[in-house]
């Protein structure tokens, strides 16, 4: 992606081994549970596609889709999301690092404006909150 300047990186330590965190991101049955998503389809491989319908507070349903540009098992996912009006997908990088029985996760993205960045950062914090709760309940 050619954008510069408006980026974020969120890092958290999760109370789960890296294999469980990886499965939560790459198995449709698990992803749907913590990401407030339905109709989840994940083809987790470089060039593979994904789609889901996000259910936002209030019950609105938002269809989402994209693809995977990089997949390194238990370490990294680079996920593209199709955004109406943009030629290139918005890319999000998910980096995982084992820390004993815990996992350090970092979500990062770069955008063309502060508004896009702030909206995506808010959404990524919600994803991490959902993931944290899902892993704690299991």
Q: How many helical elements? A: 3
DSSP E strands, number: 7
Task: Summarize the biggest pleated sheet.
Answer: 7 strands, antiparallel
Shape descriptor reads globular
- Flag low-confidence runs: none
Our Rg estimate from Cα atoms comes to 14 Å
The ordered H/E elements are: EHHEEEEEEH
Question: What does the average pLDDT come to?
Answer: 93
Helix content: 25-40%
Strands ordered across the widest β-sheet: 1-7-6-5-4-3-2
Give the class from helix and strand content and strand pairing: alpha+beta
Strand content: 35-45%
Could you tell me how far the N terminus lies from the C terminus, measured between alpha carbons in angstroms? 36 Å
Would you give an account of this structure?
The protein has 138 residues and is of the alpha+beta class. It is built from 3 helices and 7 strands; from the N terminus they run βααββββββα. The protein has a 7-stranded antiparallel beta sheet with strand order 1-7-6-5-4-3-2. The protein is globular.
Task: Describe the structure concisely for a colleague.
The protein is of the alpha+beta class.
Topology:
Blueprint lengths: L5 E9 L3 H9 L1 H7 L2 E6 L6 E7 L5 E12 L3 E6 L8 E10 L2 E10 L2 H24 L1
Antiparallel strand pairs: 1-7, 2-3, 3-4, 4-5, 5-6, 6-7
Helix pairs in contact: 1-2
Task: Tag the structure with descriptive keywords.
3 helices, single chain, seven-stranded antiparallel beta sheet, 138 residues, 29% helix, alpha+beta
């Amino acid at each position: 992606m050619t954008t510069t300047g408006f980026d974020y990186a969120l890092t958290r330590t999760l109370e789960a081994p890296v294999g469980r965190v990886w499965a939560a991101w790459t198995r449709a049955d698990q992803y749907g549970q913590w990401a407030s998503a339905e109709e989840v389809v994940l083809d987790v491989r470089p060039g593979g596609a994904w789609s889901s319908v996000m259910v936002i507070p209030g019950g609105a349903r938002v269809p989402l889709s994209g693809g995977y540009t990089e997949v390194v098992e238990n370490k990294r996912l680079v996920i593209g999301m199709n955004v109406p009006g943009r030629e290139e997908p918005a890319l999000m990088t998910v980096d995982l690092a084992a820390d004993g029985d815990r996992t350090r996760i970092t979500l990062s993205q770069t955008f063309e404006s502060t508004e896009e960045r702030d909206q995506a950062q808010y959404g990524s914090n919600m994803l991490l909150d959902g993931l944290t709760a899902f892993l704690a309940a299991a």
